[in-house]
Amino acid sequence: MRLSQMLFVTLREDPAEAEIPSHKLLLRAGYIRRIGSGIYAYLPLMWRVLKKVSQIVREEMDATGAQECLLPQLQPADLWRESGRWDTYTQAEGIMFSLTDRRDTELGLGPTHEEVITTIAKDMIRSYRQLPLHLYQIQTKFRDEIRPRFGLMRGREFIMKDGYSFHTSEESLKKTYQDMDRAYSNMLRRSGLEFRAVDADSGAIGGSGSQEFMVLAEAGEDEVLYTDDGQYAANVEKAVSMPADAENSSFATFEKRETPGTDTIDKLCKFLKCSSTQVVKNVLYQAVYDSGITVLVLVSIRGDQDVNQVKLLNELTKLAPNYQAKTILFLTVPDAEAQRKWTAKSLPLGYMAPDVADDYIAGSKEVNSKFLRLVDRTAVDLTNFVTGSNESGYHVVGANWNKEFPLPATVVGVRTAKKGDRAMHNPEQTLQSARGIEVGHIFQLGTKYSEAMGATYTNEQGEEMPFIMGCYGVGVSRLAQSAVEQSYDKDGIIWPVAIAPYHAIISIPNISDAQQVEVAEKLYAQLNQSGVETLLDDRDERAGVKFKDADLIGIPYRIVTGRSLKTGKVEIVERATHKSHEILIEEVNATLKQWIEAALK
Ligand code: ATP
Ligand code: MG
Hints:
This protein is of the alpha+beta class. The chain has 15 helices and 31 strands. Helix 1 crosses helix 12 and helix 2 (about 45-65) crosses helix 12 (about 475-485). The chain binds adenosine-5'-triphosphate and magnesium ion (MG).
């Protein structure tokens, strides 16, 4: 491609709308253009990158025996009602764009495809002989993200590879899951990324495994906790660890103390001169179940610990049947306005005890009249602890479970693991923390969707069995931008050779020099013909501008037909290192082919 004929517009200044380096660079270098919130046009250079990433993904998927297909983006609401996800996706999470057609039929724009694929399997797979089966697609997904940001990192329209596998047994699922683990590692390695596979939350399904593939970068929205021995890595949403030991209580007898202005743990501990590990704090949450019932949840946890909302959500989802529900629509810390809807009298916030009375709740058909009381493991073994008194400005000290306060019947593990904690597998290892960008997620689904949608096959014994399923996603557009986030310098993008839009760019310093143009044209034709994807900067611009642009767009090799022509050579500059080589014109092709091949290994 000739730059003179290309839609090629670069910006000198950082665009105001962009916060992180990769987003700024992709905009400045003319790869993407913002059309609306979370909506981007992939311009020609970006599209070439995306096609390269897709091709790597495709090759690795095909190598495992998975088959490519293309599923509809318009999805009937009825399918989502069968799986029970329509309300969660359109109302609670609100992540699915939905619409009504002219016949008054409701439809959603696909954020993911479990429903569509399960209905296909239900129709087409009759017998165990047709299993296992793994279908995948590469396609634009739609999600009405609350906070679209960072360009392609969190778009409302983005490209995903999603695959779904069907099995007769857990072993068969595990085999495909392992194949995917390997395939994903290959994809990321081949794309030139530094990454880590981590344990991930798999929701309330339980039992089944799930792993995320994190590209390590400061701009990552996820926190990864890991140990230096390489034995453990997990998303903080899922991570487990050993909490610090609790200090012995300095209070021997139970009494109520006046503790004015101590509505936080910090203030309280300063006032009482005690350790936060001797405190039982009681945190209030509000859960709305899909049966329409609101439940007020009181979590008692050790004062130095924080509740992990993902773990809490999973625990509360397990309790859904108690509230005639299947799932949770919302889980929040109720603010003053939310409290007004159900409080019978004002709560002693900051001073609540584990036994705060149920008559604070104005129960109704929609509001459960009793607190759901949960206790985290960190609080169970505390003795002579400090906690609220249910009266503003007062706490109690020297309290004990089943003496002053009944121990809540439901014990849960909902604490947040954090950097510095001792690791479970080896207490000598402490957890380290890093930021990560989730580019892939592999997931053992089990029978969640097949059971909900009645998708079964006949096994060898002639029985109807629900499919055992797995699903596997890669954010193709997010992955492409992550590569930039990991690889750039002050001059611009440094694409890994494997996913660069072009391998080489020929910059003609002076287009009115006939010899420069002639050599450049010859090389341009020769290189492209032999598979070295090459751009020709034949614009009538100063050499400095051309070199700057070549650096900005990040093409791995820049060929300059300048002064060295006198000795029958051209200059080749490596983008990543700025290293310059003088190469004989007739050896340029072979040299570049060799370098590219070496870079793709
Ligand atoms: P996140 O936690 O970042 O919202 P997710 O867990 O909802 O992602 P999945 O449903 O697992 O994402 O989707 C598979 C992959 O699709 C993710 O690993 C990610 O790479 C990509 N992805 C998800 N949401 C977006 C988005 N809004 N923009 C770009 N890529 C996305
Ligand atoms: Mg995910």
